[in-house]
Specification:
mainly alpha
């Protein structure tokens, strides 16, 4: 198991756990879970573990130097996040999701901020890794 895969699984696991806290047993919001695992989070049955699957796969692709695959996965993820923010997710459609986010902000403000903050930092870091020539030169030079 590559370090990139392990890092992706860990990151996805943290996002999944934070999302469960924000969901507050159905009284909060599922938006962090929908965002962290999009577009896999839209697949029935895969939604709960989608962040772990998505970020684990992305970490594996990055660690193996599969730049095209990583760009495709991260691009599909980013587009799905934009769709989710605009039109909602299977968990919370449309404007309803923002009502639930507001409720989650009252129930678990620290968990909501921490989970969304972690997600944003991780997404930015993933895009930075993909667009950094220096990082790709290191990956290409390292033994696989």
């Amino acid at each position: 198991m590559s370090r990139g895969f392990q890092a992706g699984l860990t990151f996805g696991g943290l996002l999944m756990l934070g999302s469960f806290v924000v969901a507050a047993g159905g009284h909060g919001s599922y938006l962090p879970l929908a965002l962290a695992g999009a577009p896999l989070s839209w697949v029935p049955g895969a939604g709960i573990v989608a962040p772990v699957l998505l970020w684990g796969a992305l970490g594996h692709l990055l660690a193996r130097g599969k730049r095209t695959g990583a760009i495709l996965v991260l691009s599909a993820h980013t587009l799905a996040v934009l769709v989710c923010l605009q039109w909602g997710s299977p968990y919370e459609p449309g404007a309803q999701q923002w009502e639930y986010v507001s409720r989650a902000q009252r129930l678990a403000p620290v968990a909501l901020s921490a989970t969304l903050g972690l997600y944003i930092v991780g997404l930015a870091a993933a895009w930075r890794l993909l667009t950094s020539r220096y990082v790709w030169e290191l990956i290409e030079d390292s033994p696989q």
